[in-house]
Each structure stands twice: as structure tokens, then as C-alpha cells.
Amino acid sequence: MAKRDAVFPAKPHALYEHHRYSPAIRSNGFLFVSGQVGAREDGSPEPDLGAQVQLAFDNLNAVLAAAGASFADVVDVTLFMIDPDAIFETVWPVLQHNWGEKPFPNITAVGVTWLAGFTFEIKVIAKLPGGADA
């Protein structure tokens, strides 16, 4: 079995250690990023929804940067939202601000009932620049 090549941002929040998961795994030229939430350094949720969504993107971008990538390298996005009808108008402008230029990645949005105290989560797969594994 191949060894997992875990990627951690420079300043990881406490959830990775507390829940025992890696922020991302690099494999065969791709980066598989765990769902990122608007967690503060101590792992607690940012209470303001717009700021929580932005912090989720900040955490995501830190993981991507640690692998030598950026959001421009993202090819697949999955969003998880509690009560999407109620929060969409707050979430969408933050997404657009962080989305970058065309061509945009594909996206799947899913309404969920539980995100461990969070309201929004973003999970992505990125093609690493040059297809490099390391």
C-alpha cells in the first residue's frame, strides 16, 4: 500500500489533531482536500456566517498553498450547508469573491443537517501544478 503523503498548512487549526485527520492527501498529481470549515485556530466556529465562510476559504487556501497550489488549480468543489435556503444569500457573495477567474471548477452543493457546530464546509480536489506528487 502506498504511504499517505499528508499536507498540513503552516498554522493548522486544532480540529485536525482533535479529530485525527489530515487536511489534505497528495496522490498521483492530485490534492484531495478534507472539508474545510470556518474554524478559528482553537477549532471553534467563527460565529458570523459571512466571516465563517471566508475563514473556511482562508483555511482552504492555506492547505492548497502548503501543497504548492492555489484555488486556480481546483477542479472539483463540494459545498455542504446547513439550511441552504436560509444562508445562500450570505454565502454566495463570499464564494464569488474567492472563486477566481474562468474557467471555474465544477461544483456540487449539498444541504445537510449537521456540521459539528459549523454552518458551511467546502471540500475540493485540485490538480497539482506540473502534476507533481511532492
UniProtKB/TrEMBL annotation:
InterPro entries recorded: RutC-like_sf, YjgF/YER057c/UK114, YjgH-like
List each coiled-coil range: none
Pfam assignment, any one? Ribonuc_L-PSP
Q: Which PANTHER family match?
A: 2-IMINOBUTANOATE/2-IMINOPROPANOATE DEAMINASE RIDA, RUTC FAMILY PROTEIN YJGH
**What name does the UniProt record give this protein?**
RidA family protein
Q: Which organism is it from?
A: Sphingomonas agrestis
